[in-house]
Amino acid sequence: MATPWEQVLAAVPGLNSNDAPFTYAVDDGAIIGIWDVAKIETLGLTGSSTFDKGYRIVVRPAGDDKLDVTETSTESETGSGGASMSKSSFKGKQISMSGGFSIGGDGSGGSWSFNDSEIKKPLFDFLKQHGWKKKGLFGGIFG
Hints:
The protein is mainly β and 143 residues long. It has 2 helices and 8 strands, in the order αβββββββαβ. It has helices at residues 5-11, 117-129, and strands at 23-27, 30-44, 47-61, 66-79, 84-92, 97-99, 113-115, 133-134. Strands 1, 2, 3, 4, 5 and 8 form a 6-stranded mixed sheet that branches. It has a two-stranded antiparallel ribbon with strand order 6-7. It is elongated. Residues 66-91 are annotated as: Disordered.
């Protein structure tokens, strides 16, 4: 039998670590994991550039000790030197890894790495310890 959801929510702050690049919180009866993966701004001789990438996972009870999981990722890039802009977003269930990015034609910029299992594993291990599992046929395989 699963731990009552209210007790699970009360224990969520214990998941947070000063060493982790992401945080967990509780909002409106759901567990929210947020990772501001990259926020890079450069100002060079050819103009300015920005890169922003974020990830969010929302976990809600779906009845009978099952969980509903929604993931959202966003990414945007702008550059004034060549007046370029791109933006993308995704919402659903995903497995994602990315990284090693640099912006700015003059070599300025930054780098980052992202593997969604870094934020998912501690969360789903925690939920499993409390008797909760993702709904669906592949609930134990993905995430």
